Predict the structure of Fe2OG dioxygenase domain-containing protein.
Amino acid sequence: MELDSYNERKAFDETKAGVKGLVDAHITEVPHIFRLPQGTLSDKKPSVSASAIPIIDLADVHVSREGIVKKLDSYNERKAFDETKAGVKGLVDAHITEVPHIFRLPQGTLSDKKPSVSASAIPIIDLADVHVSREGIVKKVKDAAEKWGFFQVINHGVPLSVIEEIKGGVRKFHEQDLEVKKSYFTRDVTKSVVYNSNFDLYNPSSLCVNWRDSFVCCMAPDPPNPEEIPLACRDAMIEYSKHVMTLGGFLFELLSESLGLHSEMLKSMDCMKGLNMIGHYYPPCPQPDLTFGTSQHSDSSFITILLQDQIGGLQILHKDSWVDVSPLPGALIITNDKYKSVEHRVLANRAGPRISVAGFFSTNMLPNSTVYGPIKELLSEENPPKYTDFTLEEYTKGYIEKGLDGTSHLSKFKI
């Protein structure tokens, strides 16, 4: 075999025509000497977004040499932070007293920090009432989704004990021994369990690095084996995600009905096919006025079910004003023109750590060629489409490349 390979390579070399000579000879199959061992290209599809690669326009050097140097310094600082694998918690454990430059917002970004709308105006829907009047609940969901893109639910069927256990489990994961936590560190978003700080860390368009660490468990459609889930939160994650799936199914029914569609419509569009659970950890911040816990953004999921602890910090954008979402014990927050995901952000806080657990119903990490767009049954001459059709792959690629830059990605598809 080795002799055959040698002779074939020698014969190829003696033609002096190179690979182009083979193509000019109209070959239809790759010769054996060019073939890789089987399975070598099983990882052909990249697992890390190309947006992580820094791009620096050297034409700008004539305008601002200082700006180019600053970008390089920022990249190097982000890389050094990332390589510790200790996240923002590692900075706090090192007793820093000032927020590093990569976390600092452009001056004036937080001038609107104080809300101008009362938190009491945020819709709270009691799902226990569904047994009395499903029609009444559907109307409340419709009003909340149209006017706010956001609502809180109580009496949702998730036991308080399960809620407390998942909050405790997320906290235990982030506060466990660093060497154990590092074993889950990766920037490969295709893995079923991912721990890191800032998915868009290297994205130059992001406003700033956020004061937050996160871990992700992909719980549907193919959940990890139980032993793959971190021990610190394993049982709590499995149990809580079951309840989130049940609640999500019910909410998709209500949302379908509120649109005047049959109750299974959104579920039949695979809206429930994927579930990513994300446990965020926001350490106390020494200078909370200089950074965000999470920058302004809207979610890329079909719906998000969010649990926050008593510390708060979540704000939503309503009629161009920021509104505090005050923690309501046992309540879950639902985020979802008609029915557009609300833009929201999380403020940094001296108190902490703040814990939140988000359940994202989305198939954006799954192979999916389905084209999504305005639901045809809702369109008419009086109500034409406001958005173009797109595949989830197109949407997700753009969302990741854009990062949390303070703008809505959905607006890119507006007609």
Residues 22 and 28 are 9 Å apart (CA to CA). The mean pLDDT is 85.
